[in-house]
Prior knowledge:
By secondary structure, this protein is an alpha+beta fold. It has helices at residues 4-9, 38-46, 48-54, 124-129, 132-149, 164-183, 188-202, and strands at residues 12-20, 23-34, 58-60, 67-70, 75-82, 86-93, 96-106, 112-121. It has one domain (4-202): Alpha-D-Glucose-1,6-Bisphosphate, Chain A, domain 4. Helices cover 40% and strands 32% of the residues. It has an eight-stranded antiparallel sheet. α2 (38-46) crosses α3, α5 crosses α6 and α6 packs antiparallel against α7 (188-202).
Amino acid sequence: MIDIASEVDAVRRMVGGRATPTGEDRTVHLQRSFAVPVVDVWAACTEPARIGSWFLPVTGDLRVGGKYQLVGNAGGEILRCQPPRLLSLSWVFGESTTGLELRLSEDAAGGTVLDLEHSVALDEHWAEFGPGAVGVGWDMAVLSLSRYLRGRPVPDPVSWPTSAEARDFVTRAAGAWGAAHEVSGAPTGDATAAAARTRAAYAP
C-alpha cells in the first residue's frame, strides 16, 4: 500500500509565467526532497538503464546537442547538461514543443532537493486543463522516482495506473494543482473547473 496523501503532500507545486519572443508561457514547477545524495538522484535521472526502471525507456544520442526519445512518449534535444546539478531539454510531444528543466541541489541534511519546471504554451489546452494536465503526469513520475530511490517501486506499473490507489492519487494531485493555479492568480471557478477536467482526463 502507498500512503497517497503523504506522497501528494510531499510535493510543492507552483505555477508561474515566462516571457517568450512570441508572448508568454506558463511554468509548471514541482519541488520535492529525497533523503539520498544528489549524485544518486542525478544518476537515476540521467543513466538510461536507471531511467527505464522508474520512468520510460530512453534512446538516442544522449549528449548536449543530441536527440533523445522516450519510448511511446516525448522526445527532443538535450540543450544543457551540468552534472550533477542541471539538465535542460526541449520536450516534443506530437505537434507541441515545450521546455523542461531539472535542477538538483543539496539540502541541509545531505539529501537532495529536486526542482522540475516544465514551460508550456498559454493556449486552449491550458485554458481547459490548467497546470494539472502537465503537473499530474509529472506528479506520477516523481512518485515513481521517489519509490525507486527508496527501493520500493510502484507495484506493477502496468496495472497500477488503473487501480483505486492511482485514482486517489490523481484526484488529490489534480486538486493540489487547482490550488496552485488559484494561488498564481487564476479565478477560483476557473481553477476548480480546470482541475476537475484534469481529474476526469486522468481517471475517467
